[in-house]
């Protein structure tokens, strides 16, 4: 799967980093970001849970085909 965060929507609540710290962190300004190198190939229920936990739905999780 591929994960991304819409920087225009993110409010820096930090729920993604708290829920799935292996895949999400916060930048110097406190906004959510995907850990470098983790954008592709993300696995696991915590990635989806982090997307659900985002209060502004800024996280996109896309399934990859094949």
TrEMBL record:
SUPFAM superfamilies in UniProt: 4Fe-4S ferredoxins
Domain of life: Bacteria
Keyword Lipid metabolism included in the entry's annotation: no
Cofactor or coenzyme needed: [3Fe-4S] cluster
Domain 4Fe-4S ferredoxin-type: start-end pairs: 1-29
Keywords, ordered alphabetically: 3Fe-4S, Electron transport, Iron, Iron-sulfur, Metal-binding, Transport
Stored InterPro entries: 3Fe4S_ferredoxin (IPR001080), 4Fe4S_Fe-S-bd (IPR017896), Fe-S_cluster_ET (IPR051269)
GO molecular function list: 3 iron, 4 sulfur cluster binding; electron transfer activity; iron ion binding
Function as written in the Swiss-Prot or TrEMBL entry: Ferredoxins are iron-sulfur proteins that transfer electrons in a wide variety of metabolic reactions.
Protein name, entry field: Ferredoxin
Lineage: Bacteria, Bacillati, Actinomycetota, Actinomycetes, Kitasatosporales
């Amino acid at each position: 799967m591929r994960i991304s965060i819409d920087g225009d929507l993110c409010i820096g609540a930090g729920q993604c980093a708290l829920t799935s710290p292996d895949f999400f962190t916060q930048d110097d300004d406190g906004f959510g970001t995907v850990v470098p190198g983790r954008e592709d190939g993300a696995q696991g229920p915590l990635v989806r849970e982090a997307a659900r936990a985002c209060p502004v739905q800024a996280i996109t999780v896309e399934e990859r085909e094949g």
